[in-house]
Amino acid sequence: MGIPVRTFDAVVVGAGGAGLRAALQLAEADLRVAVLTKVFPTRSHTVAAQGGVAASLGNSEEDHWHWHMYDTVKGSDWLGDQDAIEFMCRKANEVVIELEHFGMPFDRTESGKIYQRPFGGHMSNFGEKPVSRACAAADRTGHAMLHALYQRNVRVHTQFFVEWMALDLIRDAEGAVLGVTAMEMETGEVCIFQSKATLFATGGSGRMYYSSTNAFINTGDGLGMTARAGLPIQDMEFFQFHPTGVYGAGILITEGVRGEGGVLRNASGERFMERYAPNAKDLASRDVVSRAMATEIKEGRGCGPNKDHVLLDLSHLDPKVIMQRLPGIREISMQFAGADPIKEPIPVVPTAHYQMGGIPTNYTGRVVAPRNGNPDAVVPGFYAAGECACASVHGANRLGTNSLLDLLVFGKAAGESVVEDIKALPKSPKDLPKDAADYSLARLARLDGQANGEGVHEVQLALRRAMQDHCGVFRFPDMLKQGVDKIMEVAGRVGRTEIKDKSKVFNTARIEALELDNLVEAAKATMVCAATRQESRGAQAREDFPERDDANWLKHTLWYRDGNRVDFRPVHLKPLTVETIELKKRVY
Questions:
Q1: 12 near 149, Cβ under 8 Å?
Q2: Which strand ranges, in their side-by-side order, compose the sheet holding 129-135?
Q3: Cα distance between residue 164 and residue 182, in whole Å
Q4: Residues 32-77: pLDDT tens digits?
Q5: What is the pLDDT, as a whole number, of residue 328?
Q6: Which of 172, 196, 224, 407 is in the most buried spot, having the most CB atoms within 10 Å?
Q7: Long-range CB contacts (< 8 A, 24+ apart) of 440-444?
Q8: What average pLDDT does this structure show over 533-544?
Q9: For residue 429, what pLDDT is reported?
C-alpha cells in the first residue's frame, strides 16, 4: 500500500475526558488500544471545565436521580432521548464515586463528603427549587478530572500517540469502520491505524464562532471525518451560548459563580433575571439566561460606553468564599477583565460554548445511522462519546455540569460496548480496502499542489464571522437565509486554500488547513439545520417561529454532507424503567 499500517484492537481518537475514560475501560480489559491526540492529553479541552460534575449524591440536602432526570429532560426542551437521559442520571453517582477512588481531589464538606454546589436548571422535587448537585474541585473541576484520568491510564500502560492528527475514517464496502488514517505532526508521515473498533472522542466545534470559550484545538475534527465518510451528524442547530464569557475575551466564567451566590445586573444595577425566571432567577438554564442578557443589551440596558454587555456581581459575597471556591475565576477576571470580583463586578456577555449535537449514538456509545427503514441502525466498528457525540442527553439545551457527567458515563459505556463487541469478532481484523489511504493522500496533495489559492486565516475568519453574525443567540429569517449562502460560499473557498510552507516537520499551517476542512462541515450542518428547523426550542430561538412546535418538530435533525441534505429521526420519549416525562411548557 506504500504507507505504514499499525494494527490495534481499538483506536480512540481524542484524549480529553471521554477519550481517557474510554481508553481506561479498554486497557483494563487487556485490549491493545491506541489513543491519538493532537495535544498532550492533559492539554485537552476538558481541562477548561470549571464548575463541577452533576450527580444526585445528596451530600448537603436531599436529592434523587429521578429529579436529575426530570431536570435534564426539561433542560433539553424535550428533545433529549429519555432512555439515554435515564441511563446517564442513574449512572452518575457510580461514575463520580469511581472518580473519587481514582484520586480526584474533590472539595469536601465539614463531614468529609464531596462538596456540592447549586447549578442552573438543577432543581429538587421535579422543579421545585435549586438543589446542590454539582460535585466540584474549586473552580478547576475539569483540570482535576483530566489529571486523575490521565494518571489512571498511565498506570495501565495505555499507548498514546501524542501530536498525531486523525485525517479520515476508513470504511469497507458494507459500511463498517476499519480504522483511521492519521498524520504525525513531527514528521508529516501518514499512517493507517487499523482496528476492530474506532472510538471518536474528539470534542466540540466551538471555534466556528468568532467569540468562543473554546480552545483553538476545538475544530470539530470528529464531525468532519464522520461527514466526509458519508454518515450523518445530528441536531447541530443547537449550539449553546454560555451566559458568562468575559466581555471582549470570551473566556469562560463558570456558572458556579452564580451557584455560589453571584448575580447578573444591568446598567441601572437591577438584578434583571428576576423578571425572566422568577423562580430560578440567575440559576435558570443557560439558554434562558443568555436570551435574557441579549434582550437587556438589545433594549438599551447594557453596560459600558457601547451598552454591549452586562455585569456579574460577586462583591456582596464573603471574600473567603471567592478565595476558597472561585480562586481561578478571580485570577481570570483580574487578568482578562481588569476587575477584582471581590471589589467590583465582572463584565460578561453570552459566548459560544458547547455543541449539543454531534455524531448520533445510542446510550451504549455505538454510532447509529438510519438504514433500511431502521432509524437506529448501528454502524459496525464505530463508537463515539463526549461532546463530539450526540447520545442525545442534552437535546436542545445542556444543563451545566452535565457535560463532565456525559463524558464519564458515555466514555465508560462506549468502552464497555467495544469490549463486548470485540469478544464476538474473529481474532484477526477485516482486510483493509486497497484504496484505504487514497482519499487522505489526495487531500494532502491538493494542499501541497494548490497555487494562487486563498489564505487559511482569511477563510477561517470569514467562516467565524458568518456564524457569529447569522447563527447566534437569536436567529432571524433573512439573516439565516443569507447565512446559508455565506457558509456555502466559504465552503467553496475552503476547497481552494493554499499553504505557503510545504515542509513536513511540525507544519502548523498544514494542520490549520486540515482543521478548517473539518470546521466547515460543522458550520454547514449548524447553519443549514438552524434554517431548516422552523420553531424555537432550547438554544434555537427563531424570531419568525417564536414557539416550540411539538406537532411538527419534536424530532432530531440529521445533516448529510452529500447534497447538503437534512433528514430526521424520532426522539426516544420512552425511558428505560420509569414513566415518560410528559411534554409541558418549559418555565423557570
A1: no
A2: 53-54, 129-135, 116-124
A3: 7
A4: 999 999 999 999 999 999 999 999 999 999 999 999 999 999 999 9
A5: 94
A6: 407
A7: 440/167, 440/168, 440/181, 440/183, 440/190, 441/3, 441/190, 443/167, 443/168, 443/514, 443/517, 444/167, 444/183, 444/190, 444/510
A8: 96
A9: 87
Cβ neighbours, 10 Å, residue 426: 7
* C-alpha–C-alpha distance, residues 231 and 226, integer Å: 6
Instruction: Report helix, strand or coil for 383.
Output: strand
User: Tell me: domain 255-349, CATH 3.90.700.10, correct?
Assistant: yes
Its pTM stands at: 0.95
d(CA 23, CA 223) in angstroms, rounded, equals 20
**Angstrom distance (rounded) from CA 297 to CA 241:** 15
* Strands, E assignment, 288-365: 310-313, 346-355, 359-360
Give 298-338 pLDDT, tens digit per residue.
999 999 999 999 999 999 999 999 999 999 999 999 999 99
Residue 24 pLDDT exceeds 90 = yes
**Who's near 72: CB < 8 A, 6+ residues apart?**
80, 85, 88, 89, 393, 394, 399, 402
181 close to 191: Cβ distance less than 8 angstroms: yes
Q: In this structure, what C-alpha cell is assigned to residue 293? A: 442578557
Neighbours of 39 (CB within 10 A): 17
CATH architecture of 438-554: Up-down Bundle (1.20)
Report, as an integer, the average pLDDT of 219-232: 98
d(CA 468, CA 486): 12
Measured from the Cβ of residue 69, the count of other Cβ atoms closer than 10 Å reads: 25
What amino acid is encoded at 517 in this protein? D
Tell me if residue 286 is catalytic.
Answer: yes
How far is residue 289's CA from residue 412's CA, in Å, rounded to a whole number? 32
Q: What is the pLDDT of residues 460-512, one digit of tens each?
A: 999 999 999 999 999 999 999 999 999 999 999 999 999 999 999 999 999 99
Percent of the chain with pLDDT over 90: 98
Q: What are the sequence ranges of the domains in the chain? A: 255-349, 438-554
Identity of residue 41: P
Average pLDDT over residues 277-284: 94
Nearest Cα residue to 78 out of 526, 402, 548, 532: 548
Report the alpha-carbon distance of residue 226 to residue 180 in Å, rounded: 11
Give dist(CA 489, CA 492) in Å, integer: 5
Grid coordinates representing 294?
Answer: 441579549
C-alpha cell at 319: 471574600
User: Taking a C-beta distance cutoff of 8 angstroms, is the pair 235, 357 a contact?
Assistant: yes
Query: Which tens digit of pLDDT belongs to each residue from 386-415?
Result: 999 999 999 999 999 999 999 999 999 999
Q: What is the pLDDT, as a whole number, of residue 2?
A: 82
Label each residue of 67-81 as H, E or C. HHHHHHHHHCCCCCC
> Are 267 and 342 contacting, i.e. CB atoms less than 8 angstroms apart?
no
What kind and span of H or E run contains 222?
helix 221-228
SS3 366: strand
Q: What span, in angstroms and rounded, lies between the C-alpha atoms of 24 and 16?
A: 12
Hey, which residues does 37 pair with through a beta bridge?
Answer: 162
Instruction: Note the pLDDT of residue 379.
Output: 98
CB 27 within 8 A of CB 116: no
Select which of 152, 286, 330, 542 is catalytic: 286
How far is the first Cα of the chain from the last one, in angstroms, to the nearest whole number?
Answer: 59
